[in-house]
């Protein structure tokens, strides 16, 4: 099983992202149902490792929060743009959540991830030999943003690689801690015990 841990995105947010997917020839855009924010790539594991990971992910405590998507950008590899992504308005909270998930993965017996974590939503990827001019696309979509939305769970995904690209299947969902609201201010978290 090829696994990863990610935040799913609401339907209306994925619809907004789908509006960004066009206008560059010769690239493969991510299918709207596949948009997500990867928190931890796990890789190929057996049932035992997956069970241990699931147990530790279920013990993660982190308060639910709100965020919006904001901006687009690129990642480069060996001097070539290799993907375009959409960004987030609160990257630090995603980094904090990913740190809890990283700790859970390490408790489950996985090696600590050494690559720097840069939260993003992949929109498309390029092959290095076919790099179109993406300047106009970036200029046109630079001010992309969405309304804020609630993040109340994260998910364990299985990636199945096929001819038409990867298909993602949710294996399990993990609820974030609910806030208790007194008036307008969230001052405590619900005790789920
Ligand atoms: O969220 P995105 O689409 O950017 O690129 C893969 C994808 O990222 C990444 O894990 C996500 C779900 O497949 N990925 C694939 N192989 C990886 C690896 N060996 C990897 N991330 C880190 N190391």
List keywords for this structure.
single chain, 193 residues, alpha+beta, Cyclic Phosphodiesterase, Chain: A, 4 helices, 12 strands
Structure, described:
The protein is of the alpha+beta class. The chain has a single domain (2-190), classed as Cyclic phosphodiesterase (Cyclic Phosphodiesterase, Chain: A, Alpha-Beta Complex), CATH 3.90.1140. 23% of the residues lie in helices and 40% in strands. It contains 4 helices and 12 strands; from the N terminus they run βαββαβββαβαβββββ. The chain has helices spanning 11-18, 47-58, 91-107, 135-141, and strands spanning 2-8, 28-29, 36-44, 65-67, 69-77, 80-88, 121-125, 149-151, 153-162, 165-175, 179-182, 185-189. The strands form 4 sheets. A 4-stranded antiparallel beta sheet has the order 3-1-9-10, covered by helices on one side. A 4-stranded antiparallel beta sheet has the order 2-7-6-5, with no helix packed on it. A hairpin with a 2-residue loop joins strand 11 and strand 12 (185-189). The longest helix is centred in the middle third of the chain and has 17 residues, at 91-107. The protein is globular. It starts with a strand and ends with a strand. The relative contact order is 0.24. The mean pLDDT is 92. Ligand 3AM binds at residues 4, 38, 41, 122, 159.
List each distinct ligand once: ligand 3AM
- Helix-residue proportion: 10-25%
Query: End-to-end distance, in Å?
Result: 32 Å
Report the sheet with the most strands, covering strand number, pairing sense and barrel closure: 4 strands, antiparallel
What is the CATH class name?
Alpha Beta
Strand content: 35-45%
Flag low-confidence runs.
none
Mean pLDDT: 92
Overall 3D form = globular
> Count of helices?
4
Task: Assign the CATH superfamily.
Answer: Cyclic phosphodiesterase
Order of helices and strands: EHEEHEEEHEHEEEEE
**Strand line-up in the sheet with most strands:** 3-1-9-10
Number of strands: 12
What is the CATH T-level topology? Cyclic Phosphodiesterase, Chain: A
Assign the structural class, choosing from mainly alpha, mainly beta, alpha/beta, alpha+beta, or little secondary structure.
alpha+beta
Total domain units: 1
CATH architecture: Alpha-Beta Complex
The radius of gyration computed from the alpha-carbon positions, rounded to a whole number of angstroms, is: 18 Å
